């Protein structure tokens, strides 16, 4: 359109110039009027404006995300529920697995002073320190202190088992994040497949005013919304699950190091003292009573069935 206007303007300009060069005596044709140069310039100035208007009209409109999500269909409901689960677990586990909640610095510092000299380790003081800092680490140490008086191998076994139970308790909610990271993309893919099936089915019954390509493109981009939503939930869930698992593993490695430091201090109390439920150190029960005297041919302590024969009495010569 711009080229046509320019061509028309050039023709008018040539015509005006030719008319101006004719002799003054020549008569102008009837009905012809001279065209002013300003009118030609005004026509040429209007051409870019028309081009700009056409370009503005042809620009594609933006995508309304809220409307697009609403058109995702019923498959967006479980994806939305999974997103709420991911947010809730992420916040809760991030707060629960802080270092101050699992392995307090005060507990490590105070127990470190006690375990510096294993020969002077006091189970009573260690028990009070654990009560002062309630946490997963203190529960593990308390389980070991409750076995005071038993062999060192038994104490270490109890520490390892208690540490494993505490680690499982902290890691169980994180497994739900792993499940969300694996299941949510499948939910989105299921919604996309269903949307494409529906779009191809509707393309078989089109009205005359709609083309098949237009209908299919609209149905496919709407169906892909569920896949996008599933990936938007799964990617942060996978990252957070791995981050929390690494944090829990690191914290419980510190707890294991703490148990290895406490166990040698309890070795010297084996078969000597025990710790009661109040945290007081008490001696172990006394040795078993001596076996009763032999009766009716029972073996005696010297291994024979009869009491030992007393030595003979030797009379002195003066008694005779």
Explain this structure.
- With about 325 residues, the chain is mainly α.
- It has a domain at about 75-280.
- It contains ten helices and two strands.
- A two-stranded antiparallel ribbon has the order 1-2.
- It starts with a helix and ends in a 37-residue tail after the last strand.
- The model is unreliable at about 20-25, about 50-60 and about 285-320 (pLDDT under 50).
**Distance between termini?**
165 Å
Q: How much helix, percentage-wise, in residues?
A: 55-70%
* Overall mean pLDDT: 75
* Poorly predicted segments: 22-26, 48-58, 286-320
Tally of alpha and pi helices: 10
Structural class: mainly alpha
Order of helix and strand elements from N to C terminus: HHHHHHHHHHEE
The total beta strand count reads 2
The main β sheet shows up as: 2 strands, antiparallel
Binned strand content: under 5%
Task: Set out the fold topology.
Elements: H1 2-21, H2 37-58, H3 65-70, H4 76-96, H5 99-102, H6 105-115, H7 123-132, H8 136-145, H9 152-202, H10 212-266, E1 273-275, E2 281-283
Antiparallel strand pairs: 1-2
Helix pairs in contact: 1-2, 4-9, 4-10, 6-7, 6-10, 7-8, 8-9, 8-10, 9-10
Annotation keywords:
mainly alpha; two-stranded antiparallel sheet; 320 residues; disordered C terminus; 10 helices
Concise description?
This protein has 320 residues and is an all-alpha fold. Helix content is 66%, strand content 2%.
């Amino acid at each position: 359109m711009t080229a046509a206007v320019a061509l028309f303007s050039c023709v008018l300009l040539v015509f005006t110039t030719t008319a101006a060069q004719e002799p003054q005596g020549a008569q102008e044709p009837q009905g012809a009027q001279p065209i002013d140069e300003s009118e030609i310039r005004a026509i040429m100035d209007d051409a870019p404006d028309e081009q700009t208007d056409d370009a503005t009209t042809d620009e594609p409109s933006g995508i309304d995300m809220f409307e697009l999500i609403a058109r995702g269909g019923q498959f967006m409901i479980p994806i939305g529920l999974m997103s709420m689960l991911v947010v809730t677990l992420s916040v809760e586990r991030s707060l629960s697995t802080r270092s101050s909640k699992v392995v307090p610095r005060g507990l490590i510092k105070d127990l470190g002073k006690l375990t510096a000299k294993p020969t002077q380790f006091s189970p009573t003081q260690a028990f009070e320190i654990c009560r002062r800092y309630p946490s997963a680490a203190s529960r593990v140490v308390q389980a070991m202190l409750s076995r005071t008086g038993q062999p060192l191998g038994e104490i270490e076994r109890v520490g390892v088992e208690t540490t494993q139970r505490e680690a499982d308790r902290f890691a169980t909610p994180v497994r739900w994040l792993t499940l969300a990271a694996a299941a949510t993309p499948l939910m989105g893919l299921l919604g996309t497949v269903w949307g494409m099936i529906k779009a191809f089915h509707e393309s078989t019954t089109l009205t005359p005013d709609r083309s098949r390509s237009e209908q299919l493109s609209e149905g496919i981009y709407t169906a892909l919304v569920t896949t996008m939503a599933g990936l938007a939930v799964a990617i942060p869930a996978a990252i957070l699950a791995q981050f929390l698992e690494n944090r829990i593993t690191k914290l419980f490695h510190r707890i294991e190091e703490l148990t290895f430091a406490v166990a040698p201090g309890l070795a010297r109390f084996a078969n000597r003292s025990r710790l009661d439920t109040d945290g007081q150190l008490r001696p172990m029960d006394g040795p078993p009573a001596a076996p009763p005297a032999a009766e009716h041919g029972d073996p005696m302590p010297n291994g024979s069935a009869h009491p030992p024969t007393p030595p003979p009495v030797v009379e002195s010569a003066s008694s005779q």
